[in-house]
Amino acid sequence: MMQNVHLAPETDEDDLYSGYNDYNPTYDTEELENDTAFQQAVRTSHGRRPPDGVTRPMTAVRAAGFTKGALRGSAFDPLGQSWGPAPPLEARNEDSPEEKIRQLEKKVNELVEESCIANSCGDLKLALEKAKDAGRKERVLVRQREQVTRPENINLDLTYSVLFNLASQYSANEMYAEALNTYQVIVKNKMFSNAGRLKVNMGNIYLKQRNYSKAIKFYRMALDQIPSVHKEMRIKIMQNIGVTFIKTGQYSDAISSFEHIMSMAPNLKAGFNLILSYFAIGDREKMKKSFQKLIAVPLEIDEDDKYISPSDDPHTNLVIEAIKNDHLRQMERERKAMAEKYIMTAAKLIAPVIETSFAVGYDWCVEVVKASQYVELANDLEINKAITYLRQKDFNQAVETLKMFEKKDSRVKSAAATNLSFLYYLENEFAQASSYADLAVNSDRYNPSALTNKGNTVFANGDYEKAAEFYKEALRNDCSCTEALYNIGLTYKKLNRLDEALDCFLKLHAILRNSAQVLYQIANVYELMEDPSQAMEWLMQLISVVPTDSRALSKLGGLYDSEGDKSQAFQYYYESYRYFPSNIEVIEWLGAYYIDTQFCEKAIQYFERASLIQPTQVKWQLMVASCFRRSGNYQKALDTYKDIHRKFPENVECLRFLVRLCTDIGLKEVQEYATKLKRLEKMKEIREQRIKSGRDSSGCPRGRRDGSAGSDSGQNCSAGSKGERLSAQLRALPGTDEPYESSSNKEPDAFYVDPLGPQIERPKTAAKKRMEEDDFADEELGDDLLPE
After folding, report:
1. Residue 580 in contact with residue 609, Cβ under 8 Å?
2. What Rg value do the Cα atoms of the chain yield, rounded?
3. Which residue in 29, 162, 250, 569 has its CB near the most CB atoms, within 10 A?
């Protein structure tokens, strides 16, 4: 390799040598401080430093925070510790406009957040108040910003948030006009980007107001402003449009919307609504195709096999147990349950119309379901088919359909046997009901409905203790089984364990707050516990739930009557009569109430109603005639008695009243009625002699003045004095088969008194006084009126 050779100039050997002696290249580093030449070079040559005492600005280190170099010879202090403590921070001026704006903006944000939180907690009024307050403060903030900064520096995002939240809270509080006005303010402001999407919310409000034309208009306007890349948003708006068309009855337009959705992004709601639309227009083939599309909608959930451990690895098993019931798994269950609900509802809707009979339609639906991902639903559809037979009262077909499941898997077998047990129980075939209840329990011991049915069959046989055990087991398997809890309360009532029964019904009331049956049972238990105040309180709650229940109203009236509060009792009895004017007990009480209060005219309409309900009972017509007599309408009373005599010619009481009235008025018919009365007396005497041996063992001797009377028809012996309650007198009214004894031979029978009881005397003529005597039977009939 060639090397460059530097040739030195030609010199003398001596020159070269001498020069070498002048410059010694060997340095002694220990003597540098004493080397004057080196010290001079250091001070003057490198960097051209200025003389001592003159500092040079170090601009290169200003970015690191150094402002000025220290004087030469000073101590090195890069952290500036020798400078002392830092000066205090400058105090913030809270009165400055910028600081006021900043604080006000923070307060507006806090109010918006508080409004949203209150809405999520269900306090809609508080949410609206917070939203309004945020709106007021935001307007003040805008005015202050305009005074301090330029208009383009206004926080548009904050203004949008405040207005949007205010509109949402108006809508949540059903203040739709205010909500629409607020949305209009947002939509018309061109400075808000993408504000046109809020027209969807405006369309929703018009839909709630049933202004369907405007709802469709705003939905379409929102659809036009949403780009095609937002596919999911557009699908949702089109679904709203389709639902609105269904509400307006425009099924063809609705079908177009839902068909487009099912072709672009099929989902369960759109598929179900498409079936409804075709059902409305009666297109059978389209219904079938739509049902198949509904079943083909992908659920996008994991299979149950994913949650089954494939190995014995403890770590894998732990992970599977952790995800088996996490939020994602719960969401998958909810989605699957919703899909099954839509499919079941659609099948029950179209099955009766897609074929010649509902049974054939159900069979077609079952076959389609079996070929899909919902194989388990096929059995449920078969059971629904049996229930449809029940609704059509075709019990034989229902039983045959359910018996087909006896050889299926245990879950389906238990459900079918439970329904069969219930059917036989309704038909009072308790042996068959018990047999199928046993089959249901054996197939699935954890089926609460099966255990409840088994308890019902045992209850029907009178074994209440054993029935209670079945109900308890049903509750242990499913604490929310309200049927078992209700039945165990009834069982405790039968066992006279009232405290336990009350506890059961109160627990049930906590679950079913507005159940009329539960409220009535609680009131009934308190009544059995002789606590009328609590019974009345719970009956009042019952009436608030079912205000037209005549039985509850009459029950409450009876409790007030037993407590002596006649006015409240009348109010509830009258309400009961108004809702159900055919209850004899209520009619009887109202008539007795008006007689007690000396308003016989008003009592007439109730006894006439009773006579229409029970036309074969003579006592109601006798009461009507007595009311006419009490009210002073003697002619009407006489006509009523004559009408009664035509209907019941062998009624002794009617003849006695006719004889007395005709005698007092002076009518010629008195002899005719007296003859009939005499003949009936003789016939009844003969009849009484024949039935003496069959009289009641407590038969009282007839013809005594002590108010007792014999009766073979089960009537009370005591006649009831003038101080007895009127309701007791009404119940003691005589029938047509009462034995009658001639007053010409014996003392008058005190049993035959005025059905209305004693009457307050009023100053009238002697004839009227005689006609209004308390007891018609207090005097004997004259012998001149009774021919031999």
Report:
1. no
2. 51
3. 162
Q: What's the token pair of residue 361?
A: 């339609």
Q: Name the token pair of 365.
A: 């639906």
The Cα–Cα gap between 161 and 654 comes to: 88
The token duo for 50 is 């200025």
Identify any residues that bridge with 718 across adjacent strands, giving them in sequence order. Answer: 708
Enumerate the domain spans of the chain. Answer: 268-298+331-404, 614-692
718 — phi, psi (to 5°)? -70, 140
Q: Label residue 714 by pLDDT band (50, 70, 90).
A: very low
**CB neighbours of 246 closer than 8 A, spacing ≥ 6?**
254, 273, 276, 277, 280
How far apart are the C-alpha atoms of 489 and 507, rounded to whole Å?
A: 10
573 within 8 A of 590, measured Cβ to Cβ: yes
The dihedrals phi and psi of 642, each to the nearest 5 degrees, come to -65, -40
Contact 625, 713 (CB under 8 A): no
DSSP assignment letter at 665: H
pLDDT in tens, 247-305: 999 999 999 999 999 999 999 999 999 999 999 999 999 999 999 999 999 887 766 66
103-107 LR contacts (CB < 8 Å, sep 24+): 104/137, 104/140, 104/141, 104/144, 105/141, 105/155, 105/158, 107/137
The CA distance from 768 to 772, in Å, is 6
Phi, psi (deg, nearest 5) at residue 302: -80, 150
Q: Please, which residues have CB within 8 angstroms of residue 351's CB and are 6 or more apart in sequence?
A: 358, 361, 362, 364, 365, 385, 388
Q: Label residue 311 by pLDDT band (50, 70, 90).
A: low
Cβ neighbours of 87 (radius 10 Å): 6
Which CATH superfamily does the domain covering 614-692 fall into? Tetratricopeptide repeat domain (1.25.40.10)
> Measured at the alpha carbon of residue 295, what is the angle toward residues 292 and 298, in degrees to the nearest 5?
130
Q: Residue 386 CA to chain centroid, in angstroms?
A: 28
Q: Name the DSSP class of 10.
A: P
**Element (DSSP H or E) covering residue 734:** none
